[in-house]
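Example 3.2
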Amino acid sequence: MQEEARNQSEVAEDSYSRIKRLIKRDLNASLIAGGIAGAVSRTVVSPFERAKILLQLQGPESQKAYRGMFSTIWKMYLDEGWRGWFRGNTLNCVRIIPYSAVQFAVFEEVKVVLKKMNFNEKIGVDGADRLVAGSAGGIVSVAVTYPLDLVRARITVQTASLNLLNKGKMVKPPGVWETLRDVVAKEGGFSALYRGIVPTTLGVAPYVAINFALYEKLRDMMKYSSQDYSNPGWKLAAGAFSSFVGGVLIYPLDLLRKRYQVASMAGGELGFQYRSVTHALITIFQKEGFFGAYKGLTANLYKIVPSMAVSWLCYDSLREAIAAW
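Structure, written as tokens:
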């Protein structure tokens, strides 16, 4: 009897060891830490994310129902209650978990590949390598999760439009599967789920490259500095600064991404009809002015700055915890 119990204990311990080794592998650790970090950070800033989208999707001829980030958040509360702040967040988390996991994992793996290509392990990775790795992470993560991003943008604007039409009365928002089915059935088949992926990739890839490369540069400076940067607040500050810089530089392409995603809604009544990325940018600057290309920027910064600060802190902390396990 004791022998049997001992065997069961050894089997359980062996299983635990295998699971532990599996989790501690670099790729798996990056996937797990990146996924959790993405979900936590996006939930924290969900109200700002939805406000940003609503501000972005106001065309030059709109009634300007939304006038500023905080007033938009307050209007969402008045129209839809506190749940309006998190409308689409479940879908956003479903999207962001694989998106963030893939982004961080590809970034780390590409850095390893580039380091090996240097033919000298002591050289490590430099800023150019990090930019390349960040771009690769951005491209792959977009390709994996783009249909969910498109559906989330559709649900956000449809829900807001329904509430405006019904003068603020609560209405049932469209569902994920219903939206997916409508896009495929009415807008050109499966390929319609990837409408706008080119401007999305053009925006995401350089943003991730700048954000990741700048953050790691700042982290290295803190790591090898003679001053004490052990307080987690310094990592939050580094993540916030890197996302701010990347967000401002790349923002017009982020606005363009959202408009491409909703261009076919309501038969094109939203007024966003562009022949190409170049035509779209020229049209926006001509019809809406320079600041038209930065519509919703404040809301975007309120979203991405704390989001990436929290994301980087969670990611680094989880990677360190897994490594020390």
